[in-house]
Design brief:
It is a single chain. It is built from eight helices and four strands; from the N terminus they run E-H-E-E-H-E-H-H-H-H-H-H. With 263 residues, the chain is an alpha+beta fold. It folds into two domains: 75 residues, Alpha-Beta Plaits, CATH 3.30.70; 181 residues, no CATH class. Helix 6 packs antiparallel against helix 7. The longest helix has 30 residues.
Length: 263
């Protein structure tokens, strides 16, 4: 058994991690992958096939280079049940708040809440694909990626169109109370997720990637809260539309990354 470490400069979120996992899933010699996203490092445990592994990683155009290869004992590296449970918990919380924020966003006429709900949905897809990457066929993973990506692109485009429609004059005032309350609850949910992930003390791939992703969600939740306060203060829907457009942009960017997984 060998262990090869790669430096991947453009690996900064779970989307790149899933992209690499799915690419290397085609190589039988690869036995395990460990990701250190903050330091942009990938460790591949494999039984030969180094040249094919390196070529596959380079083909992703993520500014990669091989650092070192050494002997390794894979028997000491096992999948942690606690990690999988935590990831399932994070996925469940994100999908639940996708439903809650979508419903309340439509009722309250808040584009900020609708956009944030789609960001929660995007997170759910990424966490789900990270879990499915551990098992299952490559074809199934790619099909799921394509469906998820195109669905998010479709929703993001509709969201941008609605923001433009409201900005051009057909504008309803959002219910700022609902914006503040629901985004605060979403903030508490994501803070709980982040606490659970940090408490695990894990340095494994999905756990550290999830910490980064959930930290970004906390910032978006705070942005929607601030928008709700500004709607109240200014008696204008413009802050809600601005936040909605920004978050729709984040969703669209995530959709493009997910679509790469289906190639």
């Amino acid at each position: 058994m060998e262990k090869t470490v790669f430096k991947i400069s453009k690996m900064d979120c779970p989307s790149e991690e899933s992209l690499i996992r799915m690419k290397l899933d085609e190589i039988a010699a690869v036995k395990r992958l460990e990701f250190d996203i903050p330091n942009r490092l990938l460790t591949v445990f494999h039984t030969g096939g180094l040249q094919k592994i390196e070529q596959s990683i380079l083909a992703l155009n993520l500014d990669s280079k091989r650092l070192r290869t050494e002997r390794a004992d894979l028997s000491t590296v096992q999948e942690q049940t606690l990690q999988r449970r935590l990831l399932w918990s994070v996925l469940g919380i994100n999908f639940s708040f996708f439903v809650i924020e979508m419903i309340t966003g439509l009722i309250s006429q808040s584009m900020g809440l609708v956009a944030d709900s789609l960001d929660m949905l995007a997170d759910s897809f990424v966490y789900g694909m990270s879990l499915w990457a551990v098992g299952g066929s490559l074809g199934r993973k790619k099909r799921i990626s394509r469906v998820a990506g195109y669905f998010q692109v479709f929703l993001a485009i509709i969201g941008f169109a609605e923001v433009v429609r409201r900005f051009m004059g057909a504008a309803e005032m959002p219910a700022f109370q609902t914006m503040i309350i629901i985004s605060f609850l979403a903030l508490m949910a994501n803070t709980l997720c982040l606490y659970l992930l940090l408490r695990s003390g894990s340095k494994e791939a999905h756990m550290r990637a999830s910490m980064i992703f959930t930290s970004n969600d906390v910032m978006i939740n705070m942005g929607v809260m601030v928008a709700g306060i500004l709607v109240l203060w200014l008696q204008s829907n413009i802050p809600d539309l601005i936040v909605g457009a920004i978050v729709f942009g984040v969703v669209l960017q995530g959709a493009v990354r997910i679509l790469k997984l289906g190639k």
